[in-house]
């Protein structure tokens, strides 16, 4: 095992999908603050590091699910509440006032487990569908090394997303193709894993299609590598995991 694998921090990201009749589904995108240490100013999906409280709650609710997997799903749920004010993956009645109390409680330092007990809620880990898992390449000089699991989830009805004004400065709904076009026009930017995931998401027009697509491929850890192709150094990923684009010239790659 390499040193970076030992010191990497588990993280989780939630790809929230909102269907639109007759049009490609939209994905919730967040623009990170330029002051952040990781992916400053980039367009990302909501998410963040797995915390001790996530593991504690996983020990209570994981059942037959692997504890690390359960903790990652809980982290994705928690981070989405914190960053976007959107409640996904909870069982029980969550009205706008409850969603606000959950978000405020997390901001005040309470764990998600404490807040669920207070409001009579439970987690529904099956609401999150495994989509991918990424880890920086061994040679990457990144500021923080995250072992990140990506999940798909259907957007809840009747909830409005809102920025937290600390970690992010803007959020919006957009099809994966439109977000890529936005970046191509210079009105936003994404780091390498986000770009590859958006390209993959753009293959499917709806949440159901995305869920079916995700079920066709293993969730193997992706660790990009460098390779010379046609005389140009590329950053590459495996070609058996559902990604339509599996390499990019190193000079074009955006990093975290």
TrEMBL record:
PROSITE patterns from the UniProt entry: NUDIX (PS51462)
GO molecular function, one term: hydrolase activity
All copies of domain Nudix hydrolase, residue ranges: 8-196
Cofactor requirement: Mg(2+); Mn(2+)
UniProt KW keywords: Hydrolase, Magnesium, Manganese, Metal-binding
SUPFAM superfamilies with a match to the protein in the record: Nudix
Name of the protein in its database record: NUDIX hydrolase
Organism: Sphingobium olei
